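From the thread on structure requests for the teaching lab: each student submitted one protein with a one-line request. Submission from student K.M.:

"Model RGMA protein from Nothocercus julius, tokens only."
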Amino acid sequence: SPYVFSSLLLSVPTVASPCNILKCNSEYLAATSGSHHPGTEEVPEFCAALRAYAHCTRSTARTCRGDLAYHSAVHGIDDLMVQHNCSKDGPTSQPRLRTLPPGDSQERSDSPEICHYEKSFHKHSATPNYTHCGLFGDPHLRTFTDSFQTCKVQGAWPLIDNNYLNVQVTNTPVLPGSTATATSKLTIIFKSFQECVDQKVYQAEMDELPAAFADGSKNGGDKHGANSLKITEKVSGQHIEIQAKYIGTTIVVRQVGRYLTFAVRMPEEVVNAVEDRDNQGLYLCLRGCPLNQQIDVQTFRSPQATEGRTRRKGPVLPAAPEAFTYETATAKCREKLPVEDLYFQSCVFDLLTTGDVNFMLAAYYAFEDVKMLHSNKDKLHLYERTRDLAPGNAAPSRRPRALLALWAALLCLSRWWSVLL
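Reply posted by the TA:
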């Protein structure tokens, strides 16, 4: 009977594959509304639903050869068409998709459990451990291991690269001939995942922050769990958020001034989901910037360095930059960042190197994103930069700082000795 067949559709397990039989099943169930025994007057509509179901299964036959649910559906359709004297030729019904509940449309009652990360992978275990990565300003990088660096990284660089998504950023000079760079382009590729989402590409550039994927859609496509991937526009042209519930991931992209910022919250299990981790290559959010791309921001605190940047020549930004000294830069940054942590120091560095007050806002919003996305509220503020990356993003060596302190002590001692003499 149709009732028994519908029950089978809901209970047959499927293996992970590109097979779209679940989509066909759900459309058939929605079109027939779970009818037990269609009456005489309902048979034409029921036959139309079966023909639509058969057409859907034929369209996915090539990728469903070894799928048990697919073969069950095909045999069930044939049996029902014989029972109700349905002809194989004739009109087909349009699927009556279930109405989504008000509120968050990602919580679809018919969405497969595997399309909700916490429900599918951690049903009987502890809450997953989430990590955070962010890139902002000139540019400053906070890795998944809470290392903090200021980098050059001009041109295109991979930010994230795992089995589920790729993120690439392009950084361009803020001023011609300057070592100061900022993110001018961002590309995010969400890879096709089981019955949840089709492959989707999101791309943002300076003065273009779309609220949709490259194909114009705002969710994961035509698959059964498509709404487990969704774009939301928070502020038009300035702030979007991408929720990828099937991998437990939240991404925030902003345009602040002319440039882009990026922040992500991702489970460690997803971060480490790679085919060959040992040969993974450079991946900024995980391994940090290469040593030859890191910048020592301490050199920008000296009066000589500040004076040299104040006198620099060349083209200016569209909004003419101010000539900040170290004192005026720190005063400006305190307006938005009262705690003198690395976000504050990054703000000061950016004002000295670019003269663009929008970089102060970039640091401010980067910290706001950390407050929203970081799972450990005790690690929101960072105070010690990572300059020397050991394998596995080990903590930086303290020897340079110790030598600097020793040098300062010897200098004071020599001055004191010269006064005595």
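TA comment: The domain at 115-301+323-379 is CATH 3.40.1000.10 (Protein Transport Mog1p; Chain A). The two ends are 108 Å apart (CA to CA).
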